[in-house]
Write a structure and sequence with these properties.
Layout (H helix, E strand, L loop, with lengths): L1 H27 L42 E7 L7 H5 L4 E11 L4 E11 L5 H12 L6 E2 L11 E9 L7 E9 L2 E9 L4 H13 L3
Antiparallel strand pairs: 1-2, 2-3, 3-7, 4-5, 5-6, 6-7
């Protein structure tokens, strides 16, 4: 009995030592460092400038922007004296003009595309567009110039198709005016063989160059 009790006591002590050892190991175990959270890239967006950063010349149509049968006729800065007094009063700052043409003598065809790009103070763009729109739609006894459906270009836009009753060649002139930021543009296509679809695409291309 005495030996049996001693054996049981020894077993209990052994179990306690094992538990105590395990608990101490857990207590002194090094903590597991937390997993580092991957850093996400920080995207910084720069607010878009309300005015253009390019010069008018750098926003002009290039030969590659037109069909391959059009050729450059002229490109030039616009002199202040070429601008009407009203436009100068509205703060006209600088401008640029480029002209292209297509000619086919066998078909008696000559057609031209002209683009003008002018810069104004941003605060005058609404009034400027209103003045130019009224001038474009002004009644003329020999000219039919209805406003035609046209995609919205820039901030404000309008397009017309002009024909003259006294013109024996029945030439057509398409004209679009639009503003974007502090830019006013006017694009015309006129001649014996005009094409609304080409005119529309050229105007869209021109608007896409405004930066």
């Amino acid at each position: 009995m005495m030996y049996a009790g001693t054996g049981v006591s020894a077993g209990i002590v052994l179990v306690l030592l094992v538990c105590s050892s395990g608990c101490l190991d857990s207590f002194y175990a090094q903590p597991v460092p937390p997993q580092a959270t991957p850093l996400l890239p920080v995207v910084i967006t720069t607010p878009e400038s309300p005015v253009v950063l390019l010069s008018p010349a750098n926003m002009a149509l290039q030969p590659s922007d037109l069909p391959g049968d059009y050729f450059l006729k002229d490109r030039s800065v616009i002199a202040p004296d070429e601008m009407p007094a009203l436009n100068r009063d509205l703060g006209w700052r600088q401008g640029y003009r480029v002209e292209y043409y297509r000619m086919n003598l066998d078909r008696g065809d000559i057609t031209g595309v002209t683009q003008t790009i002018d810069l104004y103070p941003l605060e005058n763009m609404n009034k400027l567009f209103s003045v130019e729109k009224d001038a474009l739609l002004a009644p003329d006894p020999v000219t039919d110039q209805p406003e035609i459906p046209f995609p919205v270009i820039g901030d404000r836009s309008i397009a017309v198709r002009k024909t003259r009753s006294d013109d024996p060649y029945q030439m057509v002139t398409y004209t679009a005016i639009f503003t974007d930021k502090n830019v006013f543009e006017k694009i015309t296509m006129a001649g014996t063989t005009t094409d609304y679809e080409v005119f529309r695409n050229i105007t869209r291309t021109a608007a896409g160059k405004i930066r």
